[in-house]
Design a protein that fits this description.
This protein is mainly α and 195 residues long. The protein is built from ten helices and no strands. Helix 3 crosses helix 4, helix 7 packs across helix 9 and helix 8 packs across helix 9. It is elongated, with a radius of gyration of 20 Å.
Length: 195
């Protein structure tokens, strides 16, 4: 959301004063975007709505602590929604500890031409096919830019486990998004299939 500093300050002041119309305005302004954030972490709609509502309760309870000089209001709310979703994830699933070594290189590539043909909802549906833990690590890393260290701290897993989940997500998404390519196919074989 593009709010001017003055608009954000006014909205924050109204929320601090428990002005219901100010709280409603803030809620409506960020409703769709923040609900989408929760859905990206929690495939179950009821859990996503629970995270969303809990997140907004936290926003209203802690809005007095928001410093407009240190960040953007939408980014601050988004972080609250992400952390609230992660907290709910911790309650709902158990992460498997993976001891396999994973290379830092990105071995799995999804062709830009494939991505251009997909809409956000199509991509989200494919992400939701992933195992829940793998999906969560993928979202934190790729969609929200968390480092493996930050992910490991948030999810109480090792950095190696985080790396494994990300590599596994990329591998599975590659298979889902480009059905003509499997791990053993070569570009030559792919072109022969499409003839």
């Amino acid at each position: 959301m593009d709010l001017s500093k003055k608009q954000a300050e006014e909205l924050i002041k109204r929320c601090i004063d428990n002005d219901r119309t100010g709280q409603e305005a803030l809620y409506k302004l960020f409703h769709a975007e923040m609900l989408r954030v929760c859905y990206s972490y929690l495939p179950d709609q009821e859990l996503a709505k629970e995270a969303f509502n809990t997140g907004f309760l936290k926003v209203f309870q802690s809005v007095k602590n928001f410093d407009i000089e240190k960040g953007e209001l939408g980014g601050w709310i988004r972080k609250i929604m992400i952390y609230t979703s992660i907290d709910l994830c911790r309650k709902e699933l158990k992460f498997n500890t993976v001891s396999a070594k994973v290379h830092d290189e990105d071995d799995y590539f999804i062709s830009p031409s494939v991505l251009e043909k997909l809409y956000f909802e199509d991509i989200l549906q494919n992400i939701r096919i992933l195992p829940f833990a793998t999906q969560t690590v993928f979202n934190l890393s790729v969609l929200d830019g968390f480092t493996h260290k930050e992910i490991s701290e948030q999810l109480n897993i090792s950095e190696g486990t985080s790396r494994w989940h990300l590599a596994e997500a990329k591998r599975k998404l590659r298979e889902l998004l480009d059905p003509l390519v499997t791990n053993n196919d070569r570009p030559k074989e792919r072109s022969e299939k499409t003839k």
